[in-house]
Structure formats: C-alpha cells, structure tokens
Amino acid sequence: MTSLTAPIAAAVSGGERAVAFDAAMIAKLTDVAGDFAINLSVALLIFVVTVFASKWAARAARRALGRVRGFRHDPTVLSFAVQVVRVIVIIIGMIAVLQRLGVQTTSIIAVLGAASLAVGLALQGTLSNVASGLMLLILRPYRVGEVIDVGGMAGTVQRLDLFTTQLSNANNHKIVIPNSKVFGDVLTNLTGQKTRRIEINFTIGYGEDINAARATLAAVAEGHEKVLPDPAPWTGVTGLLDSAVQITLHAWVEVGDWWQTQADLMQGGKEALDAAGIEIPFPHQVAVPYGDDAVLPMIAVQALDQKGGYAEKAPDDDDTGNGG
Fold first, then answer.
1. pLDDT value at position 306?
2. pLDDT at position 286
3. What is the pLDDT of residue 273?
4. How far is it, in rounded angstroms, from Cα 285 to Cα 282?
C-alpha cells in the first residue's frame, strides 16, 4: 500500500507544480501583453501628437520668423526654416515613440554609427540634395517669385524645399527639380535684375534707306510708355543676309514689362515700316539649272507673290544676250 501511495503523491505534486508553472506563465504573458498594449497605445498617441505638434510648430515658426525683418521679405528662407523646424519636431517625436516601445536610443545610435557608410552610400543623392539646398539658401542665386532657367526648364520659383526646387512655367505646369541639379547646372535668373533689355531683329530690302529705317524703329521705341529713357533705345545694322539687311532694335524696360512691351514693339515696328514705305522682303530663291555647255544657263528667279505663293520669272532673249 505504501508503495502505491508514494508514486501517486509524486504525480500529484508534479501536476501541481506544472499547473502552478502554467499559471505563472499565463500571468507573465498577460502582464507582458498588457504592458505592450499600453506601450503601443501610448506610442500611437505620441505619434499622433507629434504629427499635430509638427504642424503647430511650423505655423508658430512661420509667425515668429515673419516678424523678423530678414525673413519677412524673403519667403525663400522663411519656407526653408519652417520646414527644418517641422522635420526636427518629427524626429524628436519618433525617438520618443521608439523609446516607449522599448527600443533603446543608445542601440539606435550604435546601429546608425555602424551603418553610417552604407546609409551614406544609399542616400548620397538625397543627402546631396539637402547639402545643395543649404548652399542655395546661403548663396541666394534666386528667390521665391523670380523667373529662372535651369537646364532649359524655365519657370517662376514657387518654393525651395530641403530636397527640391519647385517652379511654375508660363502654362502653369508644376516643375520639380532636385536641388543638386539646380546647384550643379547652369542657372539663369531672368528676373534677378530690376531692368531687362528687349532685342528685336527687323529686316529691310537692300534698296531701302537704312538710316530712315533705323530712325523709324527708334521712334517707335521712344514713343512707348514702358520703354526707359536711360539707356536710350538703340538701332543698328547687325547683319547682311542673303536677301535683306538686318536691323536690330534694343530697348530697356522694367522686368515686369518685358513680355508685353516686346510684343508691342514688334508689332509697332512692323506697322511703322509699312507706313514709311520701307519694304520688309519676302524670302527669295534662285534656281540655276545645269544643261548643255553650248546652251547658256537659264536663270529663274522665284519670289513670294502677294498671295503667299510663288511667281516664276524666266529671262527673255534680251536678258540672255541672244535677242536680235
């Protein structure tokens, strides 16, 4: 009887210990799950607060920096500084989220330090854009609202971000250019100066009075209200073309008046030359056919007629020297 009691007692004792262990494990897992759920909820709350805090900090920074004279009149620096403040707030919030989830920031720093080379190589384009944005902010080759040309893409600067420069062209197309390309390419600031020169090329026939044509074009420019008196409008012969003399008109205007004034002067110059009876020649073509050496070459001169077509004139016998 005693021999049966001992194994039974041992089995019961083992079962009690197993039940106690299972209960302890369940309690431990319950505590861990509860703590994780609480930490996750708090982390999500911190993340949501971070998003709203970044927007609030950006607005507060915009209002505060807007009171500073150096930032008030320069939206380029203002928008850049506001974005930097927003990014800093987001970084701080994400560090707080990771800490709440049990991730040690020292471990993150160690990992980032060990992987800095790989991260730098992977993000070299992005980091280059950030560095170029800072250099553009320091050197200031353009400001928001100015018209620039970068690699053949021209438009009005809308904003300068950490990574890109945003333009809007004449057709209201949004153009996004990486800062590294803007900083590394040839950049033309079309409205960086207060005044801008208009250059228009006109052509007149070789038999026309050149001085009269120059005086006519200069009078058109001088009579326009948007053309500046200093420097005074200038005209001169700038080319002897195949069938015309090229006369160039230069006139200086305010930057904002450039487009419309150029169109006005181009139309006004054409109308003034017509009124003065000065010919603006049509394109001419001379065809020389090749035939038998014993036959004199026949030259046909083609010119645009008044209706825009071609009229052909063949020389008669007197022109070829064979007339009798």
1. 43
2. 62
3. 95
4. 10
| Strand duo 147-150 + 153-160: pairing | antiparallel
Can you give the pLDDT at residue 315?
A: 46
Whole-angstrom distance, CA of residue 203 vs CA of residue 248:
9
Residue position matching structure tokens 């403040």:
85
For the record, the structure tokens of 174 come out as: 């949004």
Contact 274, 298 (CB under 8 A): no
User: From CA 134, how far away is CA 193, in angstroms rounded?
Assistant: 23
* Model pLDDT, residue 312: 45
Q: What is the DSSP string of 74-117?
A: -HHHHHHHHHHHHHHHHHHHHHHHHHHTT--HHHHHHHHHHTHH
Q: What was the pLDDT predicted at 310? A: 43
Asked if residue 275 lies in contact with residue 259, where contact means CB atoms within 8 angstroms, the answer is: no
pLDDT at 69: 62
Instruction: Indicate the SS3 state at residue 20.
Output: helix
Q: Which long-range contacts (CB under 8 A, 24 or more apart) does 153-158 make?
A: 153/177, 154/190, 157/76
* pLDDT given at position 298: 46
75: left (phi over 0), alpha (psi -120 to 50) or beta: alpha
Evaluate whether 163 touches 83 at the Cβ level (below 8 Å).
Answer: no
d(CA 292, CA 290) in angstroms, rounded, equals 7
d(CA 211, CA 184): 47
Triad 128, 129, 135: Cα angle to 5°: 90
The Cα 230–Cα 236 span in angstroms is 18
Contacts of 303 (CB under 8 A, 6+ apart): 282, 284, 310, 311, 313
Q: For residues 83 and 316, what is the distance between their CA atoms, to the nearest angstrom? A: 80
Q: How far is CA 104 from CA 36, 116, 200, in A?
A: 15, 18, 69
State which residues of the chain have pLDDT below 50.
Answer: 294-324
pLDDT tens column, 18-47: 656 566 667 666 766 767 777 778 888 888
